[in-house]
Amino acid sequence: MTIPNFNQRGVLEKGIHQCNSQQFMNRFCYETSAVRSKYKKVLEEIFAFALSREGSSIILAGSFVTEKEEPNDLDCMIILPNKECCWVQSNELMVVEDCQLDVIIIEESSKESIYSFLNLFSKDKLNLDVGMVEVILDKKADSSTWNDYEEYFSVESLLRAREAYIHRHVIRGIREKKILVTITNVMEHMNFNNKISPIVSSADWIFAPYWYYSGDKDFSLLEEVKRISEWLSDIYRIYEANISIFADGLGTLILGKYMKDSQYREFEIDRIILSRSVLNRDYEWSTVIGDWAVNMVCNLRSKDRDFIISEPISKQTKNELLYGNAYKEGFRIKHSSLIEHTFQYFGPINWQQFNNIIFPMYQTAYLLKKNTDSMIRNNIHEIAELMRNETPSNYDIFRGKFD
Question: Which of 84, 173, 387, 395 has the fewest CB neighbours in a 10 Å radius?
Fold first, then answer.
């Protein structure tokens, strides 16, 4: 069993390539790479875990099994004999600093799902063929059980695999990656973005500021929407992480039009904070929040009804149907994910206000979600029993997702 050389694209040739655990470590966890070497310990723990549950092999894919010097993902599928073997407590899988793996634990009888994941792993983001590696843990198993995965290809199965991993565990030694995009006027916020960059980065967020310029008659809302669409798409493709947004002034109009009109929703937007929003108070947040799976929208509404935005805005822009004064009036629509927060403006938000008031809103929302997810995991059986008693019609749906 040997792993072939990478092809001209820097990936393994199509197919499942077998090796033993030591061969995998030597090939992909070499000491000269600070990133790759850190995965060695956690992989040893995963191999040991699979063997303890009578697993015979592990399928590994993602950028980790390419020639990329600093890979950002390792997909790992552990195939176990039965459903009972698949249940995992959080402390059974080891976490090592800076290691990030997507681990799928699936029972051997779920052949359709296994083949679906293999077909999913066999393509990169450009839908080009890539190879996978099967680490044989049982010395008696000298051939792959799943090399015929292409014979079982179907679009329906592939879509199901993309939408819902079965018994999927994310092992992270660092906090979940998060991206903060600011949409601000370059003339008003150049120094602001410079100041908040280390604040955001030190909290383990990826900071990706977007600037626009509205100081002349050539400002085109449609052009800015096109540019922000390309920017957000590029950021998501590079980092594949949750995106949250801080938009100020005309930036709120750019964001609002983009989210309402965009036909390319390739990612979800997590949290949005609107400062000095010039969106119309009748903006259709109910539809937009649902379409983009937004967890929180916070509109900073001015305490001072006489407050006037200093940012230059052309008559043409003010004639846009989405234009308004939500920073004064708030939004008419009521939604559980839409928060109206009164705020004392003295002009554009400065970096101290961002540090002391705005940024903690993103952090608090993240911690609330994390604690809620933990509560649900720890009380899953009690929740299921409550649903069976209170809402029997939803019980079967709930069990279907978690059984």
Answer: 84
**Closest by alpha carbon to 310, among 187, 223, 210?**
187
How many Å apart are CA 323 and CA 345, to the nearest integer?
Answer: 20
pTM here? 0.52
The whole-angstrom separation of Cα 403 and Cα 386 is 16
**For residue 136, which amino acid is it?**
I
**Which of the 8 DSSP states describes residue 209?**
-
Q: Dihedral sign, CA of 267, 374, 159, 6?
A: positive
Q: Which helix (H) or strand (E) holds 77?
A: strand 75-80
One DSSP character per residue, 277-343 reads --B-TT--HHHHHHHHT-SEEEEEEES-TT----S---HHHHTSTTB--HHHH--S---TTEEEEEE
Which residue in the block uniquely carries the two structure tokens 């310990």?
41
Which residue(s) pair with 299 in the sheet?
274, 340
- Report the 10 Å Cβ neighbour count for 43: 24
Tell me 272's DSSP state: E
Q: What is the pLDDT of residue 271?
A: 92
| Alpha-carbon torsion (94, 95, 100, 102), positive or negative | positive
Considering only 21-25, 214-218, 277-281, 377-381, which range has the smallest mean pLDDT? 377-381
**Cα separation of 187 and 193, whole Å?**
11
In order, the DSSP letters of 219-244 are: --HHHHHHHHHHHHHHHHHHH--EEE
CB atoms within 10 A of CB 139: 8
Q: Give 12-40 pLDDT, tens digit per residue.
A: 999 999 998 889 999 998 888 778 888 88
Question: Which residues fall within 8 angstroms of residue 316, CB to CB, at 6 or more apart?
Answer: 217
Q: Rounded distance, CA 117 to CA 126, Å?
A: 17
Residue 293: DSSP 8-state: T
Report which of 286, 298, 242 is spatially closest to residue 267, judged by C-alpha positions.
242
DSSP 82: S
Supply the DSSP symbol for 108.
Answer: T
**Helices within 34-153 (DSSP H only):** 34-37, 39-52, 83-86, 111-121
Residue 228 in this model has a pLDDT that exceeds 50 = yes
- CA 85/CA 92 separation, integer angstroms: 12
For the record, the structure tokens of 96 come out as: 């090592």
Between CA 350 and CA 310 the distance in angstroms is 14
Give which of 6, 142, 154, 130 is closest to 73, Cα–Cα: 130
Enumerate domains of the chain plus CATH numbers: 15-172 (no CATH), 178-362 (3.40.50.1820)
